[in-house]
């Protein structure tokens, strides 16, 4: 069981806190000779596999590293264009690591805003007046759980579909937010949460939830 990440979104749809707790690794590294038997294409400022899925390398995976050096978007560690580097026979044999790209800070901000809009749309589409909006989205690899407070703050948890006790965890996170963010004299409402005690207690709550499931009385 695992809890992947936590998002806190303010009532205006802005991301005010985000924590990556556990990221499943699905990277694949292989050594290739020339010519490269995969088709690579630039996409969203990174180089991804467009054709040639095999041996754990999937279409959509991004080039993460070349010869052990991390790749920054479409460029190698020393500033060379990835596609130009891999198109040069003199650079082979070459070791390439592929995997799912890591979301940037801007991408996380955008996704939080998009979910805020979807939450509002869900509320409006409901045939019942006063719908709470989206509480859970389910895929084959994770579930997204959302709890919105009366003041409009949304707490979002992404977890393994088999993870139990998420409803209790969401309310525990709300308690931690109330105790260590709202009661912090240096914290301003609706603004990003930068509080060490909030971080520490949130991480502890996630660890407890993963090991023990639902929070019991007095937890």
TrEMBL record:
One Pfam family here: Sybindin
GO annotation, biological process: endoplasmic reticulum to Golgi vesicle-mediated transport
Keyword field contains Membrane: yes
Keywords, comma-separated and alphabetical: Cell membrane, Endoplasmic reticulum, ER-Golgi transport, Golgi apparatus, Membrane, Postsynaptic cell membrane, Synapse, Transport
Gene3D superfamilies linked: 2.30.42.40, 3.30.450.70
InterPro entries, per database record: Longin-like_dom_sf (IPR011012), TRAPPC (IPR007233)
GO cellular component: endoplasmic reticulum; Golgi membrane; postsynaptic membrane; TRAPP complex; vesicle
Domain of life: Eukaryota
Location in the cell: Endoplasmic reticulum; Golgi apparatus, cis-Golgi network; Golgi apparatus membrane; Postsynaptic cell membrane
CDD domains: TRAPPC4_synbindin
Protein function: Core component of the TRAPP complexes which has a function of guanine nucleotide exchange factor activity for Rab1 GTPase. Plays a role in vesicular transport from endoplasmic reticulum to Golgi and autophagy. May play a role in dendrite postsynaptic membrane trafficking.
Record family assignment: Belongs to the TRAPP small subunits family. TRAPPC4 subfamily.
Subunit composition and interactions: Component of the multisubunit TRAPP (transport protein particle) complex, which includes at least TRAPPC2, TRAPPC2L, TRAPPC3, TRAPPC3L, TRAPPC4, TRAPPC5, TRAPPC8, TRAPPC9, TRAPPC10, TRAPPC11 and TRAPPC12. Interacts with SDC2.
Annotated protein name in UniProt: Trafficking protein particle complex subunit
Organism taxonomic ancestry: Eukaryota, Metazoa, Chordata, Craniata, Vertebrata
